[in-house]
What does this fold into?
Amino acid sequence: MLNTLVEYAGKHLDSEPGFTTRMVRWLVEISSEGKLINVLPIGEDKGEQTPRCPEMHNMNAGGRAHFLVESLQTVALLFKADEDEKKIAGSKEKRAFYTGMLRQAASAAPMLHPLELFLDAPDQVELLRSRLVAEKAKPSDWMRWSIDDANPLEDAAVLDWWRNWRQKDLGRGEAEEEPKRPKKGAKNSRKSPDSGMVCFLSGEVTPPLPTQPKITGLSGVGGLGTGDVMVGFDKAAFCSFGLEQASNAAMGERSVRKYVDALNHLVKNDSRKLANALVVHWYKESVSKENDPLAFLTEPPETTEGAALQSAREILDAMRKGLRPVLPDNRYYAMTVSGAAGRVMVRDWMEGSFEELIERIDQWFSDLDIIARDGGKWAKEPKFMAVCGAMVRELKDLPAPTAATLWRVALAGLPIPQPFIAQAMARFRADLIEDKPFNHARMGLIKAYFIRKGDQCMDDYLNKEHPEPAYQCGRLLAVLASLQRAALGDVGAGVVQRYYVAASQTPGLTLGRLFHNAKNHLNKLEGGLAFWYEGQIAEIMSRIRDRIPSTLNLDQQSLFALGYYQQIAANRAGKTNNADEAAKGDNE
It folds into this structure.
């Protein structure tokens, strides 16, 4: 898993130890004389992703600051009105470290002299602070500089100074030695880990990074605003063989920087929230957006799954006809993550061939196909979160493991777990009692459950010849409810509201009573309409014969619900809903 992230960074990102990508909100422009020119907000809401920001190591030691790109609290001493005195003192200490580094850097990189002058001028810093207050900036916002219209993050002398300073501070001399691969047959020297260990990711002998950089962007799914650690050991119980911290899973700095940058980039650019988790996805070889079968993860909600279905089928057809070039070894990777007490929790990991992914997505939407409640055409393909929401009252009630499991079901072509259908059925019954419209995603999910169980008789529309008595019993209740409405009009709580739950659980006891009462309703109708209803009831009873079950289990109750729904749709369409007529209705 981590190796695929390292490969992704190698192909798509410019990763280097000592640098990271930050969400920067403010750009402070100063002149060549060290005077404030302007303060500009950049990006939207929280800011703009800025690559190649210097990242200070050993920040836990206290009193240290990042080079050039830092928070407004550290650079401008911007605080909340009621800020704690201890925090103010700590920020002043960090600012002293920050300005001290800039003085050193300015001696090697002349472009930083104006910034040195600016930070040493109390009136200019106070002007900056007043401008930030007027702009309603937050102390925790990050900022970067523009010096006489030049970006110091792009200046070679500035970056070279930072690299050398960092190496010296780490105690590695002027430059880091190239890691070496262990010789075959060489034994473990039992020296301190600082002398070198085999990196889990590269296989090279290199000093292990004691603490690893954090993954950001998970604050909305249980993570911390400051970031969460993917690999870390901060308890004695996590350590073994006398190794401390991340030496238990030794990884070199270069490899760590790559996987961290890759995951941070994917969380920002290729992720989709599923309940209280994020799904990030990528491919071994680049895939254009129009050919990405998982594009609905990053597209706006109103154009997600419907567009994905059309795209998946078009791509699949073109591949099979040889009309679209396909890399034979291309693979997809999908990781479901969330935050937990400062750590990254990997809830699921999936990978497979690109072609297989397209087939699975195509099958997912095909299994969910269902006739619309008005019976005239098929319902629109449901969005993935709409299918998830079909199991709960409100989407916020959806547990993260449920969404992650359904995601795996969709991408791996697995059977739908029965507990999901139990939840969907509970919501189906509740909506019926409250006389709410049918939920298409819910009915599609129930139908897909049987398709993936191998039910060869389950169709998108009404199947009058379905062999299961439970399905036919659902049809019968739909016809009896329609008959009551035709005979009595709107009588408040009708057959469905009063008897659906009992009929779907104990049809042998309930349907008989309703069937006998139907004779009274038939007597109130005109001859032609009464004759039509008699024919409907007779046709269904000929399928059931004497096989009305006394009780129904969960699967049978689900068949009952589908029979009821599809019969209602057929009644509303005024058709028998065979395949040809359903197709005709779709074109009208």
User: Anything to note?
Assistant: The longest strand covers residues 343-353. The mean pLDDT is 84.
